[in-house]
Amino acid sequence: MDEIIKIDLFGEEFRFKPDDQVKDPSQVVQYLTDYIQEAEGMVPNKNSGRNKIAILLLAAMNLSKDFHELKMQHAELEKDMENKISSLMKKIDKGL
C-alpha cells in the first residue's frame, strides 16, 4: 500500500504510511480524530501547549481503555467458543 495518510492535530499536519496489514487507514485516522475531539471537550483552554499534551494523553488513555475492554471481550468469546466446541466434540464422540 503506497497511500500516505494525513492527520491534522491542533492545526499541524502529520503524515504516515500504513503497513499492508491496515485494511482501512482512513478509518484508523477517523477513530483517532474522534477520540481527540472527545478529549478536547473535557479540557479547558485547548490552545495551551500543556493542554494539547493533556488532550492527546486523555485520548490515548481512552483509546487504551477501550482496546483493553475489547481484548477482554475477545478472550471471553474465545473461551466461550472453546467450551462450546469441546461440548459438541463430546456429543459427537458419544454419538459414534
Q: What does this molecule look like?
A:
- The structure is a single chain.
- The chain is mostly helical.
- It has a domain at 5-69.
- 66% of the residues lie in helices and 10% in strands.
- It has helices at residues 25-40, 49-95, and strands at 5-9, 12-16.
- Strands 1-2 form a two-stranded antiparallel sheet.
- β1 and β2 form a beta hairpin.
- It is elongated and about 70 Å long.
- This is ZapA-like cell division protein.
- It comes from Desulfotignum phosphitoxidans DSM 13687.
The fraction of residues in strands falls at 5-15%
Oligomer: single chain
* Number of strand segments: 2
Q: From N to C, what is the helix and strand string?
A: EEHH
The gyration radius over C-alpha positions equals: 21 Å
Query: What number is the mean pLDDT?
Result: 90
**SS-derived structural category:** mainly alpha
Described by strand count, sense and barrel closure, the largest sheet is:
2 strands, antiparallel
